[in-house]
C-alpha cells in the first residue's frame, strides 16, 4: 500500500508517463539491475551463485529483491521435483530487458 501511495505521489510530482515511472521504480531499486544483469549473463542460477556474483548485497536484501522481481514477473523461482534444488531465471519479460541493459552498458562505457 505504501509503495502505491509513493508511486502516485511521484507520478503527480513528475508528470511523467505512469508506466515509465513504474518501470524506473522497479529497475532503479538498488540491486535489481545487477540481479537482472547477472541472470542475463548466466541463465539459471542458484541463490548462492547470485550472492557470490553480487558480493555487497546481503542475503536478506537479495531474497527481498528476488521476491519483488518474481512479483513483477521478471524473475521466476524454479523448483525441481524430487530435489531440494532451487534456482532463479528470467522470464520472457525479464529477457526482454536485454536491449535495455545493453544500452546501459554502452552509455556507461562512453560516459562513466
Automatic annotation (TrEMBL):
For this UniProt record, the keywords arranged alphabetically read as follows: DNA-binding, Transcription, Transcription regulation
Q: Which InterPro entries match?
A: HTH_HxlR (IPR002577), WH-like_DNA-bd_sf (IPR036388), WH_DNA-bd_sf (IPR036390)
- Kindly indicate whether the keyword Protein transport belongs to this entry: no
What one GO molecular function would you report for this record?
A: DNA binding
- The HTH hxlR-type domain extends over 17-112
Q: Where does the source fall among the domains of life?
A: Bacteria
Entries under Pfam families matching the protein: HxlR
- Entry protein name: Helix-turn-helix transcriptional regulator
Classification of source organism? Bacteria, Bacillati, Bacillota, Bacilli, Lactobacillales
Amino acid at each position: 500500500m505504501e509503495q502505491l501511495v509513493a508511486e502516485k505521489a511521484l507520478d503527480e510530482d513528475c508528470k511523467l508517463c505512469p508506466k515509465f515511472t513504474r518501470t524506473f521504480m522497479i529497475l532503479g531499486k538498488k540491486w535489481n539491475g545487477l540481479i537482472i544483469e547477472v541472470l542475463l549473463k548466466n541463465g539459471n542460477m542458484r541463490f548462492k551463485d547470485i550472492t557470490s556474483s553480487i558480493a555487497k548485497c546481503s542475503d536478506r536484501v537479495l531474497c527481498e529483491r528476488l521476491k519483488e522481481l518474481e512479483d513483477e514477473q521478471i524473475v521466476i523461482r524454479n523448483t525441481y521435483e524430487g530435489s531440494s534444488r532451487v534456482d532463479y531465471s528470467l522470464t520472457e519479460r525479464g529477457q526482454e530487458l536485454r536491449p535495455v541493459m545493453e544500452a546501459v552498458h554502452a552509455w556507461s562505457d562512453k560516459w562513466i
